[in-house]
Design goal:
Layout (H helix, E strand, L loop, with lengths): L1 H16 L2 E6 L7 E2 L15 E3 L6 E5 L6 E7 L9 E4 L3 H6 L7 E9 L7 E8 L4 E8 L4 E10 L2 E7 L12 E9 L4 E6 L2 E4 L5 E3 L7 E8 L7 E13 L9 H5 L4 E4 L6 E6 L3 E7 L5 E5 L5 E3 L6 E9 L2 E9 L1
Protein name: Por secretion system C-terminal sorting domain-containing protein
Keywords: Signal
Organism: Epilithonimonas mollis
């Protein structure tokens, strides 16, 4: 019996070590109040956080509720200029990622996000970047109350860091906690977003996820958006960024993630109807404009949606199937 117990312990340890934590924090060891006093990436504040933009009241350790204990709160500015941006960064992410276990080529980030006052038109959230570009991220639009993605995509052979709308049609009002996250598979070029337990694999016609990027910086931030005229607070708690493999994510191979991309929408462009072809039963369809507003939706039985009343332009269509939700882009002509 002793040998059986020993072998079990070894097996459990091996499973645990298959995911390697790159950076994490729950802020519970911090002191309530100001995080730091330098706002130009100078001397670090509490927890080794370097701050950029704003003043001391814009970076606070707060008690929002008993469940989360202490959390990190940002207050974005009241203008539609770079002066309203806020950012907090620790050192060491790049070194930890470079030292990850061989084969753990999927970056996974999870965190609790608090929508806060949800005023103005700000975009608070989290992303991972390197010295020259962004890789992947997730943020909350305080105007639309929708989560948006960030992704490095290659379009016409040119990689760039894009804001992605249409990854979720669920709105979250002020003062709401939401558990969210994202993954970036650098080898296979796959990005997923998870919002309140619902996972979407990013798929945009004419674009592919840029492969082989390595993160060097984990950023908690609040950015202004066009037309912003008001400050807003938001908060982050219990974040974990780790390096994992496909088995850790609960799939046999990453190819299984890619196989969920089984939805086709046509014709594209279209003037009247969008037809939806899927290898899985379609449950619902939701069309979203570039501002993140839902403009057409239905519980789909005939796999077709009427877009005749939409104005000309580019739209995102979320197709919920039995195997998850997929995102496509189409043009209304």
């Amino acid at each position: 019996m002793k040998k059986i117990y020993l072998l079990s312990a070894i097996a459990l340890s091996t499973t645990f070590l298959s995911a390697q934590v790159i950076e994490s924090d729950n802020y519970n060891s911090y002191t309530l109040g100001d995080v730091g006093s330098n706002f130009a990436f100078g001397a670090p504040g509490q927890g080794g956080m370097y701050l950029s933009g704003g003043t001391a009241p814009d970076y606070q350790i707060v008690n929002i509720d008993a469940t989360h204990d202490k959390s990190f709160q940002l207050t974005g500015g009241a203008t539609a200029t770079a002066a309203s941006n806020r950012q907090a960064v620790k050192l060491g992410f790049g070194t930890a990622w470079a030292a990850r276990t061989t084969g753990n080529d999927i970056l996974r980030v999870t965190f609790d996000f608090y929508t806060g006052t949800s005023t103005g038109t700000n975009l608070p959230g989290v992303n991972v970047t390197n010295s020259t570009t962004g890789l992947v991220g997730l943020k909350y639009n305080t105007a639309t109350k929708l989560f948006q993605g960030m992704a490095n995509l290659t379009v016409n052979g040119t990689p760039a860091f894009y804001n992605i709308t249409g990854i979720s049609a669920v709105t979250y009002p002020a003062n709401t906690w939401v558990k969210v996250g994202f993954t970036y598979d650098k080898v296979n070029g796959v990005i997923t977003y998870t919002i309140d337990g619902v996972t979407t694999t990013l798929a945009i016609a004419g674009a592919t996820v840029t492969k082989n990027l390595d993160g060097s910086q984990f950023n908690v931030l609040s950015n202004y958006n066009t037309g912003n005229t008001a400050t807003t607070t938001s908060a982050v708690d219990n974040y974990v960024a780790d390096a994992v493999n496909a088995a850790t994510l609960g799939v046999v191979t990453v190819g299984q993630i890619e196989k969920t991309a089984n939805v086709t929408v046509y014709p594209n462009p279209t003037a009247d109807y969008i037809n939806i072809k899927s290898t899985s039963r379609v449950i619902s369809v939701n069309v979203i404009d570039v501002s993140g507003k839902s403009v057409a939706s239905k519980k789909s039985a005939d796999n077709q949606i009427d877009v005749r009343n939409l104005t000309k332009g580019t739209y995102i269509i979320n197709v919920e199937t039995e195997n998850g939700t997929e995102t496509k882009k189409f043009i209304k002509k």
